[in-house]
């Protein structure tokens, strides 16, 4: 059996029906209440009881931001070739296969064209389920080509980050994606096209220290985690406990790292509002 | 590590012979020469047998010369510049002006410090936000006056601290990469010890990237990688081998342009390493000087555009293919 049926892959179905065997209820990690899954979906994956944000998959994010029926998938048909032949507790090849199966994605990012309240743009959306949304060669390539597409078409570029950082299993090549994406970003500068970076939970390490921090306008989704080093590493280094809100969206805003903190429900109109200026 | 013992034994034998030679007036030069040759042969084959974890030890060797040592060895009129003009002066980053091969260059060097007290001062080569701002300031200066940039990489990683995060260290690294990639002057980076993840690549987006043979360049420290993937820092040796972080690996992956021979190792014979680096820097600098601004930028952009490794997904990608 082929792994993917290429032509159907990544079709974002705005009226997707729930799979039969899927659980109907999910438990909120924040308030422990059982929530009807359909209700959660209708509510932008925000707990109707306590307001906690659930992870959005890349497809769900696209559905929540892009106008109905305007999305055209432009994700390149590429996947990791495991350049280091990396094995830890589990071979990287296996991790990749599992992630592909679970997410029905080639890697942790979807790139496409679409409209946000009738503003045409190119959007790249990361999916945390796929090996922590980490950036390896494929993600770097997808971001670079997404930017090139935006430049060719004279469109704004929007990146929705949800990534723990560079992908360890591809070693130095992952590190180089920081340079690759940063270098690609320059094309937008030359063409005077806006790049809006949206940081969601989490935007950290190699992704935060490269492309995600280079937006002309940078928005943080409420409840995001934004930072370079991990909390635990910092606490071990400085020998003290960090405040609860450390590296939160609010923290990033107060430190002047992002331009605004936006509720998930408001992200779409906020993006449209920003794009209106360019 | 019996190989290491053999080498040490040979070294001590030579030492003893040398002492006998000088103290007792015995002529042992033939024997010394023979043993020295044997040692150097052994060293050569031993080099090939070193794995990623061995190289990590060499890259972090306490006697390994740091950025300042290379500045001293390669230039004789280095003029340090201090401060990022806002937060302070990051001693983990030594930077300034120097005459090199007949022209003024800007040097940006991460320095771990040569001894314990220096290492305290330089924060063991871990830069904070001000260090990356300082690097950008020096890049601006270089561009303004058409000075080429030589950057020396040696850091375990950017400093994981509270203030660093408050001062947007991730953003500063991003800006540093962005600044470096757009410079219209020739840039050469050399990894001289530890190329520790984002903190290293911040000053590494150069036209040419060189790497001393006992250096490492990695997306994450082997310990950090082991802690996350193996859930145990004790697996750092395995992680080091898996991460393919040696100079030879980096060259194979197309990330590094040239590996610099260190002879017996920079921690033992600094002059050999420094001379070889010097030769390579001069060669690369003169090659880059032939290019005009446009060519320089175009080539640099191309170089990083094609970095990475992946394959096309075909319709008949079979699940069984990989197994």
SSE inventory with pairings:
The complex is a heterodimer of chains A (278) and B (323).
Chain A: E1 25-27, E2 34-36, H1 37-42, H2 58-65, E3 72-73, E4 78-80, H3 92-103, E5 109-116, E6 119-126, H4 137-153, E7 157-163, H5 171-190, E8 195-204, H6 205-208, E9 217-221, E10 226-227, H7 231-238, H8 249-254, E11 260-262, H9 267-276
Parallel strand pairs in A: 6-7, 7-8, 8-9, 8-10, 9-11
Antiparallel strand pairs in A: 1-2, 3-5, 5-6
Helix pairs in contact in A: 4-5
Chain B: H1 2-23, H2 29-49, H3 52-59, H4 67-74, E1 79-80, E2 93-100, E3 103-110, H5 116-121, H6 129-144, E4 149-155, H7 162-166, H8 169-181, E5 187-196, H9 197-201, E6 208-212, E7 216-218, H10 222-230, H11 236-242, H12 247-252, E8 258-260, H13 270-289, H14 293-305, E9 310-312
Describe this structure in words.
The complex is a heterodimer of chains A (278) and B (323). In chain A, 33% of the residues lie in helices and 19% in strands. Chain A has 9 helices and 11 strands. In chain A, helix 4 (137-153) packs parallel to helix 5. Chain A is globular and about 50 Å long. Chain A starts with 24 loop residues before the first strand and ends with a helix. The model of chain A is unreliable at 1-8 (pLDDT under 50). Chain B has 323 residues and is of the alpha/beta class. Chain B has a single domain, classed as 2-enoyl-CoA Hydratase, Chain A, domain 1 (Alpha-Beta Complex), CATH 3.90.226.10. Chain B contains 14 helices and 9 strands. The longest helix of chain B has 22 residues, at 2-23. The chains are: A alpha/beta (278), B alpha/beta (323). Chains A and B meet through strand 4, helix 4, helix 5, helix 6 and helix 7 of A and helix 7, helix 8, helix 9, helix 10 and helix 11 of B.
């Amino acid at each position: 059996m082929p792994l993917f049926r290429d032509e159907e892959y990544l079709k974002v179905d705005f009226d997707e029906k729930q799979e039969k065997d899927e659980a109907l209820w999910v438990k909120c990690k924040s308030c422990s209440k059982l929530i009807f899954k359909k209700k959660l979906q209708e509510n932008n994956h925000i707990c109707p009881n306590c307001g906690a944000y659930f992870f959005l998959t890349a497809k769900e994010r696209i559905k929540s931001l892009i106008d109905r029926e305007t999305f055209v998938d432009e994700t390149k048909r590429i996947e990791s070739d495991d350049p280091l032949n990396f094995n830890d507790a589990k071979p990287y090849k296996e991790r990749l296969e599992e992630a592909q199966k679970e997410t029905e994605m080639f890697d942790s990012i979807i790139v496409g064209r679409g409209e946000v309240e009738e503003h045409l743009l190119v959007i790249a959306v990361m999916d945390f389920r796929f090996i922590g949304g980490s950036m390896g060669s494929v993600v770097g390539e997808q971001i670079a080509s997404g930017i090139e597409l935006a430049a060719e078409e004279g469109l704004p570029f929007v990146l929705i980050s949800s990534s723990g950082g560079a992908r360890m299993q591809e070693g130095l090549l992952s590190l180089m994606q920081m340079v690759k994406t940063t270098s690609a970003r320059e094309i937008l500068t030359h063409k005077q096209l806006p790049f809006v970076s949206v940081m969601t939970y989490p935007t950290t390490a190699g992704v935060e220290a490269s492309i995600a921090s280079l937006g002309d306008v940078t928005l943080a989704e409420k409840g995001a985690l934004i930072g370079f080093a991990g909390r635990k590493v910092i606490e071990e280094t400085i020998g003290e406990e960090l405040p609860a809100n450390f590296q939160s969206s609010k923290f990033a805003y107060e430190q002047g790292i992002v331009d605004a903190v936006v509720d998930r429900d408001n992200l779409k109109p906020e993006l449209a509002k920003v794009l209106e200026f360019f | 590590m019996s190989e290491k013992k053999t080498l040490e034994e040979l070294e001590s034998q030579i030492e003893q012979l040398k002492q006998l030679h000088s103290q007792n007036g015995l002529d042992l030069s033939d024997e010394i020469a023979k043993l020295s040759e044997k040692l150097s042969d052994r060293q050569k084959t031993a080099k090939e047998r070193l794995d990623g974890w061995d190289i990590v030890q060499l890259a972090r060797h306490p006697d390994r010369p740091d950025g300042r040592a290379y500045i001293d060895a390669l230039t004789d009129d280095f003029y340090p510049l201090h401060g990022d003009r806002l937060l302070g002066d990051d001693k983990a980053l030594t930077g300034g002006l120097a005459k090199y091969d007949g022209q003024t260059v800007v040097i940006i060097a991460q320095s771990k410090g040569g001894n314990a007290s220096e290492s305290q001062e330089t924060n063991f080569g871990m830069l904070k936000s001000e260090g990356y701002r300082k690097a950008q300031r020096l890049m601006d200066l270089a561009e303004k006056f058409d000075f080429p940039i030589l950057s020396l990489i040696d850091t375990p990683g950017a400093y994981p601290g509270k203030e660093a995060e408050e001062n947007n260290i991730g953003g500063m690294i991003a800006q540093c990469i962005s600044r470096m990639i757009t410079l219209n002057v020739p840039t050469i980076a050399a990894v001289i010890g530890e190329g520790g993840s984002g903190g290293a690549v911040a000053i590494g987006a150069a036209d040419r990237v060189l790497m001393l043979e006992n250096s490492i360049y990695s997306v994450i420290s082997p310990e950090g990688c082991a802690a996350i993937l193996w859930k145990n820092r004790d697996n750092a040796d395995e992680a080091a081998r898996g991460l393919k972080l040696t100079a030879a690996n980096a060259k194979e992956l197309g990330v590094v342009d040239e590996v610099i021979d260190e002879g017996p190792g920079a921690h033992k014979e600094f002059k050999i390493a420094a001379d070889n680096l010097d030769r390579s820097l001069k060669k690369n600098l003169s090659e880059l000087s032939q290019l005009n601004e446009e060519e320089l930028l175009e080539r640099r952009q191309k170089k990083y555009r094609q970095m990475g490794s992946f394959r096309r997904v075909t319709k008949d990608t079979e699940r069984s293919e990989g197994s």
